[in-house]
Specification:
The complex is a heterodimer of chains A (298) and B (304). Chain A is mainly α. Chain A has one domain: MetI-like (MetI-like fold). Chain A has twelve helices and no strands. The chains are: A mainly alpha (298), B mainly alpha (304).
C-alpha cells in the first residue's frame, strides 16, 4: 500500500503486468469454499445412494440417540431426532431441498431480474421509472411478512415457497444490472450497433447482455446464501416446506423443544447450513476480487 | 432541493405500491371478509363489514376507502385479539424498538472498530479472524445462534434467562443473537469501503506528506468511506425496528416479530397487513433520512 507498488503495474507493458497479477491472484484459490461446496453438492446429488437410513422413517424406540462422538453408535453418526429418524440422513436430504429451491429461485428470479434491469437501463424514461419503483416496493417489505400473508391466504406448499423465494431475489439483479447497463449503453460498440441499424431487442441481447454476465453470476453467488437462509427461516417458522420433508430450517425448529436433552437435532442442520453459506460467501468474495475489485460494495 | 422533492415523491409512490399490493392480496380470493373477519362473527357483523369496506361498490372505490382509512390510522381489527390493530402495533412496537436499540448499538460499537481494524491490517491475522467472525455471523441463521446461546448461557451455565421479557438480563441473549448479524454486515461493508479509500490518491498524498497514520485512518479514510456503511446501518436499524421476527420467536420476546408469527399461526390477516404496512413505512422513512444525511456528508450528491 505504498506509492511505488502502484506505478509499475500501470506503466508496465500490458502483457507482463497483467499476467503477473493474474498469476498472483490464481495462487490463492478459495480452497476451503471449493472443498466444502464440492462435498456438500456431491452429498446432495447422490443422497439416495449415500444415506444410511430412510430420511422420513423413524423408530420411536431409537429416539434421541446421541451422535457417535457423544456416546452414540456408528449406526446413527449424527444421532436421531424425537421420532427416531436418522439426523445425518435428514441433513443430507435437507441439503437437497435447500439447493434445489435456491437454484430454482435464482434461475427464474435471476432471469426476470436481469431482463428487467437491462430493459430499464436501456430504455430509460417511464419504463425505467416504473421498474425502479417496483424494485423499491420489493425492497420495502420484508420477505417473511409477505410470506406470512401469502401462507394465510393460500396454504404452505413447495410451489408457494419457490414463488416466494423467486420474489425475494429478482430485485437485487435488477438494481445492479441496471446500473451496469447505464454505463455500457454509452460505449462506442453499442453506438456502432445502433448506427448499423440493430433493433433495441438485438442490442440488448447481443451487445449489452454479454457485458453484464459476470455481474449477474456474482450476484447469484451472493444471493444463493441469502436464499438458502430465507428458505430455512420460512421452514423454521412453518411457512416453508410442509413436513415431514427434511428442510434444515424445519429440523432446527423440530429440535427446539428438546434443546436441553437432544441438542444435536437442532445443532447439526445449523452447522451444515453455516458451513455451506460461509463457503458460498467466501467464494463470492473471491469471484468479486478476481473479476472486478471495484464491486467490493456489492 | 430538487433532489429532496424527488425523494419525497418516490417514497410516496413506494408506499402507494405497498398499499396496492396489500389491498390486492386481501382480495385475491374474492371476498376479503373471509380473511379479515374472525370465524365467530355473526351475520350482522359480516354485513356491517361489507358496508364498511364498500364491497357493494366498484373495486377502485373500495381501494379509495381503504387508503383513506389507512391515512386516518384505521387498520382494522385483529381477528384473534378483537382489538384495533393500530393499538396492538404501538404496544408491541415499543418492545421491538427496545431490542432494536440495543442490537443496533452493538452493531455500531463493535462493528465499526472491527471493520476499521480489519481493513487497516489487511492480510494479517486480525483481518483473517475478524473476517471469519463476520462470514460466520452472516452464514449462521440468527435464530440458530439464539438457540445456541440459550443452550450455553441459560441451559448449561444458567447465567441468563432463556426467554420472556423481564429485567435487563433478558435483553442480553436476544441482543447478541440479532447483533451478531448486524455487526458482521457492518464489518464487511466498512472493511470494503475502507479498502477502496485506502487505495485512493489522496491517501497516498497524505502519506507522502508524512501525515500520521492514525490521522490518515480516522480522518482521511474513514470519513470518505462512510457513505455505504451509513446506508447499511440505517437500513439495518429499520429492519430491526420491525422486529427480528425469528429471533423474537426463539426468545418469546413480545415484539412485532412474535406478533406476526402468532398472526401467521392463527390466520390473523389484519395484523399481518398492519405489520407489513408499518415495515414499509419505516423502511421508506429511513431511506429518506439516509439520503438527506448523504446530502449533508457528500456534496457531490447535491449536484446530481
Amino acid at each position: 500500500m505504498n506509492l511505488s507498488s502502484n506505478v509499475p503495474e500501470k506503466n508496465a507493458s500490458g502483457v507482463l503486468g497483467s499476467s503477473y497479477s493474474r498469476r498472483h491472484r490464481l495462487l490463492r484459490w478459495p480452497i476451503f469454499s471449493l472443498v466444502v461446496l464440492f462435498v456438500m453438492i456431491c452429498l446432495a446429488v447422490f443422497a439416495p445412494i449415500i444415506v444410511p437410513h430412510d430420511e422420513n422413517l423413524g423408530f420411536l424406540e431409537d429416539r434421541h440417540q446421541p451422535p457417535v462422538l457423544f456416546g452414540g453408535t456408528s449406526n446413527h453418526i449424527l444421532g436421531t431426532d424425537s421420532l427416531g429418524r436418522d439426523v445425518f440422513s435428514r441433513v443430507v436430504y435437507g441439503a437437497r431441498i435447500s439447493m434445489l429451491s435456491a437454484l430454482t429461485a435464482l434461475v427464474i428470479g435471476g432471469a426476470i431480474g436481469t431482463a428487467l434491469g437491462i430493459f430499464a437501463g436501456y430504455m430509460g424514461g417511464w419504463v425505467d421509472e416504473l421498474i425502479m419503483r417496483l424494485v423499491d416496493v420489493k425492497f420495502s417489505i420484508p420477505l417473511i411478512l409477505i410470506a406470512f400473508a401469502m401462507v394465510v391466504i393460500f396454504s404452505p406448499s413447495f410451489g408457494l415457497l419457490l414463488g416466494l423465494l423467486t420474489m425475494f431475489v429478482w430485485g437485487q439483479f435488477t438494481r445492479q444490472v441496471r446500473a451496469e447497463v447505464l454505463v455500457i449503453k454509452t460505449t462506442d460498440y453499442v453506438a456502432a450497433a445502433r448506427t448499423w441499424g440493430a433493433s433495441p431487442a438485438q442490442i440488448m441481447y447481443r451487445h449489452i447482455f454479454p457485458g453484464v454476465i459476470s455481474t449477474v453470476l456474482m450476484i447469484a453467488t451472493f444471493q444463493s446464501g441469502a436464499v438458502i437462509l430465507a428458505e430455512a427461516t420460512l421452514s423454521f417458522l412453518g411457512a416453508g416446506v410442509p413436513p415431514p420433508s427434511p428442510s434444515w430450517g424445519a429440523m432446527i425448529a423440530d429440535g427446539r423443544l428438546y434443546l436441553d436433552t437432544a441438542w444435536w437435532v437442532s445443532l447439526a442442520p445449523g452447522i451444515a447450513m453455516g458451513l455451506f453459506i460461509a463457503a458460498i460467501t467466501l467464494l463470492g468474495d473471491w469471484l468479486r476480487d478476481y473479476w472486478d475489485p471495484k464491486l467490493r460494495q456489492l | 432541493m430538487n433532489f429532496l422533492a424527488r425523494r419525497v415523491m418516490t417514497g410516496a409512490l413506494t408506499l402507494l405500491g405497498v398499499t396496492f399490493l396489500v389491498f390486492g392480496l386481501s382480495r385475491i380470493q374474492g371476498d376479503p371478509r373471509s380473511i379479515l373477519i374472525s370465524d365467530d362473527a355473526s351475520f350482522d357483523q359480516w354485513q356491517e363489514m361489507g358496508k364498511q369496506l364498500g364491497l357493494d361498490q366498484p373495486v377502485y372505490k373500495q381501494y379509495q376507502i381503504y387508503v383513506v382509512n389507512l391515512i386516518q390510522g384505521e387498520l382494522g381489527t385483529s381477528t384473534l385479539q378483537k382489538k384495533p390493530v393500530a393499538g396492538i402495533l404501538l404496544e408491541r412496537g415499543r418492545n421491538s424498538a427496545l431490542l432494536a436499540v440495543t442490537a443496533f448499538s452493538l452493531t455500531i460499537l463493535v462493528g465499526v472498530p472491527l471493520g476499521v481494524l480489519s481493513a487497516v491490517k489487511t492480510g494479517g491475522i486480525y483481518d483473517y479472524a475478524i473476517r471469519m467472525f463476520a462470514v460466520l455471523g452472516q452464514a449462521l441463521p440468527s435464530y440458530w445462534v439464539g438457540l445456541l446461546l440459550i443452550l450455553i448461557f441459560a441451559v448449561g451455565l444458567d447465567w441468563l434467562p432463556a426467554s420472556r421479557m423481564s429485567d435487563w438480563t433478558s435483553l442480553v441473549l436476544p441482543t447478541l443473537a440479532i447483533g451478531w448479524l448486524g455487526v458482521s454486515g457492518q464489518i464487511r461493508i466498512i472493511r470494503s469501503s475502507m479498502l477502496d479509500a485506502l487505495d485512493s490518491e489522496y491517501v497516498q498524498l497524505a502519506r507522502a506528506k508524512g501525515v500520521a497514520e492514525r490521522t490518515i485512518i480516522w480522518k482521511h479514510v474513514l470519513r470518505n468511506a462512510i457513505v455505504s456503511p451509513v446506508t447499511f446501518a440505517s437500513l439495518t436499524f429499520a429492519s430491526m425496528l420491525t422486529g427480528s421476527i425469528v429471533v423474537e420467536t426463539v426468545f418469546a420476546w413480545p415484539g412485532l416479530g412474535l406478533l406476526s408469527v402468532n398472526a401467521l399461526n392463527n390466520s390473523d390477516y389484519p395484523i399481518l397487513q398492519g405489520v407489513i404496512l408499518l415495515a414499509a413505512l419505516i423502511y421508506v422513512l429511513f431511506s429518506f433520512v439516509t439520503d438527506v444525511v448523504y446530502m449533508m456528508i457528500d456534496p457531490r450528491i447535491r449536484i446530481q
